[in-house]
Design brief:
This protein is α+β, with helices and mostly antiparallel strands. Helices cover about 20% and strands about 30% of the residues.
């Protein structure tokens, strides 16, 4: 059993743990995981399903915050890109959500479009994930135990 005192970990440690946790979860569902040495293109790792389909995966983790984001220039909103959100709460095992980047083709209260980038704004455009109890039902459909089972048995077409 891992140490469940997540607040003791640094930002870098929690991010690394989230990546390894996701890789183990994908592997436990029979998916092949391929890691890259450097994450400079918004890809933390690549998976291959049993039908030979490849997916680029980006991992995001949250603890106390309720918002995570991916710069728009780091991910395509298509079926070949997946996002993992790992929620860490002290005393509990991590909660993993896996969803296609296509969720941002129809933004809502959870999956938001932040079109920053105007001269007056310092931030780059980003795809956001709002984690809140109020809208948890919109995120819960992407709980790993639901999405990984489907991914294991289905093609991306």
């Amino acid at each position: 059993m891992p140490n469940l005192n997540w607040s003791r970990l640094t930002h870098m440690q929690i991010g690394k743990y989230a990546e390894y946790y996701c890789k183990m979860e994908f592997t436990s569902y029979g998916l092949d995981v391929y890691t890259s040495e450097v994450d400079d293109h918004g890809v933390d790792f690549v998976i291959k399903d049993r039908r030979g389909n490849f997916y680029e995966v980006q991992v995001k983790s949250i603890r106390k915050t309720s918002y995570a984001f991916i710069p728009k220039d780091k991910i395509k909103t298509d079926k070949a890109h997946l996002v993992c959100l790992v929620k860490f709460t002290d005393g509990e095992m991590p909660k993993l959500y896996v969803f296609p980047a296509t969720v941002w083709n129809n933004p809502n209260e959870v999956f938001v479009d932040r079109p920053y980038g105007k001269e007056s704004q310092k931030s780059k455009a980003e795809w956001g994930i709002n984690y809140s109890k109020k809208h948890l039902d919109l995120l819960e459909i992407y709980a790993a135990e639901k999405t990984l089972d489907v991914l294991e048995n289905c093609s991306s077409t």
